[in-house]
Amino acid sequence: MKKLLVVVAAVAGYAAVAAPVEFLGIEVGGTLNVLDAKVREREGLGAPTLVNLVIAKYSYYDCDSVKPRGGYDNFGVSVSTNNVVLSVSAWGVCPDEKTAAEKKEKILSEFRTKYADRIAPEGNFTIEVSADKDGASGKPFVDVVIYTAEFKATLDRNYKHGK
Q1: Is the pLDDT of residue 7 over 50?
Q2: In the prediction, which pLDDT does 70 show?
Q3: How far apart are CA 124 and CA 30, in angstroms?
Q4: What's the rounded Cα separation, in Å, for the pair 58 and 81?
Q5: What is the pLDDT of residue 159?
Q6: CA 122, CA 99: separation in Å to the nearest integer?
Q7: Among 16, 71, 105, 127, which residue's CB has the most CB atoms within a 10 Å radius?
Q8: What does the mean pLDDT of the chain come to?
């Protein structure tokens, strides 16, 4: 019976790998070596910054984009110290609030359709899409973040206890 459970777990693990969530051409949960300058250049990313979550006792790298991609003004990735992509985020200015709200709904609909089986609580990914106005410029924007569910839980735990 134990052998059967191991095989089922291995198949389930393979299914998760075979069905990644991708955003802006980057697989969330896949691997990306952001310490390699050639990889960053290929992906349009700047130098990594090490982030230390003191309360959660977790460290990872953040990289911001150096140029727009996929219709977004900027994007970024968070990558574990062992090169696993923990999240991909993007931010784009919209001409007006109505367009931002419509874009938000369109993005949510596309992600829910494409990745329904992979979004938490059933799946291993968390998707957040919001439309708002920038406090400094007053310009409307859309913000998109796709996390591994585990990374999102780590961030939530860290910031919940950090208040």
Answers
A1: no
A2: 93
A3: 13
A4: 9
A5: 84
A6: 31
A7: 127
A8: 87
Q: State pTM to two decimals.
A: 0.84
58-80: average pLDDT:
96
| 3-state DSSP assignment of residue 145 | strand
Q: Please report, in angstroms and rounded to a whole number, the separation of the first and last CA atoms in the chain.
A: 46
In angstroms, the CA 43 to CA 62 distance is 14
Q: Is the pLDDT at 110 greater than 60, yes or no?
A: yes
Sort residue 156 into left (φ over 0), alpha (ψ -120 to 50) or beta. Answer: alpha
Q: Which helix (H) or strand (E) holds 100?
A: helix 97-115
- Sequence letter at residue 158: N
Cα 130 to Cα 108: distance, rounded to the nearest angstrom: 9
d(CA 159, CA 144): 19
Does the pLDDT at position 53 exceed 80?
yes
Cα separation, 67 vs 69, in Å, equals 7
Q: What beta strand segments (E) does 34-84 contain?
A: 49-53, 58-64, 74-80
